[in-house]
Amino acid sequence: MLRVDAAPFWARLEATSMKDGKGEYLCRIVISDITKHKQVENALGESEKLYHSLFEHMLNGLAYCRMHFDDKGRPYDFTYLSVNNAFETYGRIMGAG
Q1: Is 89 helix (H, G, I), strand (E, B) or coil?
Q2: How far apart are CA 89 and CA 97, in angstroms?
């Protein structure tokens, strides 16, 4: 949408309709400026891209895992959730992959 000064902004529109006391339909529309929310959302997306790029291109192997615990709280196994290219390469060299 555009502001009065023609500057663009992100907006959320919410609309409801109802009947008044005479049975006539009324419509209520609320326009909210969500530009700041969108800017934060975009910044977070850029940060996630940077993290992903660093994770994928680092020289050291890195694995992100979930640890599994028994009923006494002792670890007994784990699951790889994500590994980077260097980790996969090392695994192939070592015969694990």
Answers
A1: helix
A2: 9
E-state strands within the chain: 11-19, 25-33, 63-69, 75-83
Say if residues 46 and 64 touch (Cβ distance below 8 Å).
no
Backbone phi, psi, residue 10, to 5°: -80, 140
**Half-sphere exposure of residue 83: CA atoms within 13 angstroms, side-chain side:** 13
In tens, the pLDDT along 31-46 reads 999 999 999 999 999 9
Q: Are 64 and 88 in contact (CB under 8 A)?
A: no
DSSP 60: S
